[in-house]
Amino acid sequence: MPKIFFDTEFTGLHQNTKLISIGLIAEGGQTFYAESTTFHAGYQNTEDRVWLENNVLPNLKLYMKQELPRDSSSIQITNGGVRHTVFGEPWYIAVTLEEWLTQFDQVEMWSDCLSYDWVLFNQLWGHAFNIPKNVYYIPFDICTMFKLKGVDPDINREEFAGMTEGVQKHNALWDARVIKACYEKLIRL
Fold this sequence. Notes:
By secondary structure, the protein is of the alpha/beta class. The protein has one domain (3-188): Nucleotidyltransferase, domain 5 (2-Layer Sandwich), CATH 3.30.420.10. It has 6 helices and 7 strands, in the order E-E-E-H-E-E-H-E-H-E-H-H-H. The chain has helices at residues 46-55, 90-101, 115-123, 142-148, 157-161, 172-188; strands spanning 3-10, 19-26, 31-36, 74-79, 82-88, 108-111, 140-141. The chain is globular.
């Protein structure tokens, strides 16, 4: 079953967190990246907002571009080799992501510390029972794989993967690429 490596950025480590962005990369290199236009409702406190403004928002690909209309419910863009780059409301992200996923018969989803990532992935479709049928319902976590391979799960991912040039930490697509590279190295150990 093909693997898809994914990551999300979100508004905070709390129950009411909102999706900021999601990035996916398949084993074959196909990518999907989306940013939500509605994440501001997920700020719980000033500390979260300040951290996000300093660490996540500057690494978004579309949100920071002034030429994009702020009231748009959906924009689809192809750039930089990314087949789907989406700026829109979560329902539109779900529709375009489901379309992107149709290129695969069945897929496994892999992430890193996936507790929030998997919940936000499922939330795009409103419920875990509504995720696309070709997505295997059990997600996998490279943190567990690190532990099983005898590698400290708290290791710097970019260093482990050998991706120390051009680091874009806290960008969901970059982080998905790092997760994929870590998986590929771990599988060979």
